Predict the 3D structure of the following.
Amino acid sequence: MIPQSFITDLLNRVDIVDVVGRYVQLKKGGANYMGLCPFHNEKSPSFTVSPTKQFYHCFGCGAHGTSIGFLIEYSGMGFVDAVKDLAQGVGMVVPEQDDKIPPAQRAAQQAQSLAMTDALNQACDFYRAQLRQAPNAIAYLKGRGLTGEVAARFGMGYAPAGWDNLRQVFKDYEAVALVESGLVIDRVDEDGGNKKRYDRFRERVMFPIRNTKGQVIGFGGRVMDGGEPKYLNSPETPLFNKGQELYGLFEARQPIRDAGYVLVTEGYMDVVALAQLGFPQAVATLGTACTSTHVQKLLRQTDHVIFSFDGDKAGRRAARRALEACLPQMSDDKTIKFLFLPQEHDPDSYVREFGGDAFAREIDEAMPLSSFLLREVTQEHDLDTPEGRAHAQFEAKPLLQAMAPTALRLQIVRGLASMTQSTPAEIEALFELSKPVSVARKAPPRQGRPEPVGLELQIMRMLVAHPAIALDLDEAALRAFDHFGAEPADRLRWLVEQAQALGANASFAALSQQLKEASTEFDHLVAEIASEPESDIDTDRVWITSAVRQIKMDALKQELNQLFSSGLTPDQVSARYREITAQQDLLMREAANDTPAKFA
């Protein structure tokens, strides 16, 4: 777990204008910067980036967040990867509480990673240059209907014939980084004597594989003459893990947002060809089955995923593995579908034969995950017999157990129950599903917190906008919040604790990031503050000082009015009366001096 103090320091060092500016064209507009929102289609800029708040906000779609949030939403990175990316840019090393690697070893690992990245970039440039002078490769790509423009967009290249062409690129062809990055292979004689080094990729059209930051982390090479293997991938390396990466995701990020869905195909050429044919929102797995990590990455980009598989047995097996990878990630606001083309077609050939409109209709009519699951567990069994229905339920059990207790799971349970002559409750009991949702019971009344209003809301707004003010609030000030009632007081005290934990360098961006990780309760308030001009911290500090003082005055006045009917003895009443009036006098003197000091 990354310490919150590091996150605060990081957000104070990075400049969100630089971070967002890498991906969005920004223009100065008053105190902020403006641009077209990368998260929805718009023609007039409503996307603002505030250098003072270190926060972005879109007035069109409501997207907002810090530099960390932007990288997560735009690039599809996880939280840790986004933090590491930002930290690397400002020369910070991310501490990890469970990281027991000695500093020297970690520095060596970082040097190794940089060396591999540099080697892969140089190789990519070499392959691209070779493509321009390889008529056979150019003819092959033209024969597949590709233009130079789309080849350039995906950074495609060509690895020429020959065993050691990369000697032209690297002065030290024996460098360890060339083996570690998968560019070359070392073959050693059986007796361990002579070592022969040669290029891994030869006579292949080259597809650079990029991560979500656009860095080349590996290659895929395709033969052009029917040789084997048809596709050759880079091996697993510290930079490249096939179970975590998707080909074309870096290039498809904006098209996915424009289209509203991502299309997952089975190969490099499908992705590039579909981009050529008007479907740039396509990605592909890298010669491996779809994994849960793949699905997580896809669902960070869009709520609508469509898997496209060939209609043969291999395609059906791939679809089944994708189904299993999707189930743990499913929620009621996500849509996952499965598209099966005729056996003689892949997406590329289908579009070329029937046209883009026909393929778009196939996408629209793709099979929902629920239908595919029920088809998978029932189609091999005779549902007219008890044994067939039992077999179908047996197959469905692990699939439904993998799902969270959502409304979608309930719908699938009901569908299976109907097909197997059971009730939903019987299915849930038989499958031992967690938190059954079909049992008819009245939900308990919701005990949600009341929305903050009035003075409480204003205090919250100022604390979120300027969390450093929270350091001025001591225990007496926090007790004063009881005047609002138990739940509002708890909410205010929790907010103060979160702000105080960030220390004197607390900022709106740092607190917003911390609140986002802890709760969604403050999302709306953060969005409002992000969309407004920045307030003056000194003015807000004085206001909160006065507000808390007034709350204390009101509480003392209320206690004084009830003192004589409180049931205390006369001596106790007299003692408490003197205490209350002394506190009132002190507060009145503070108000006269109007000193924004700590509250007594």
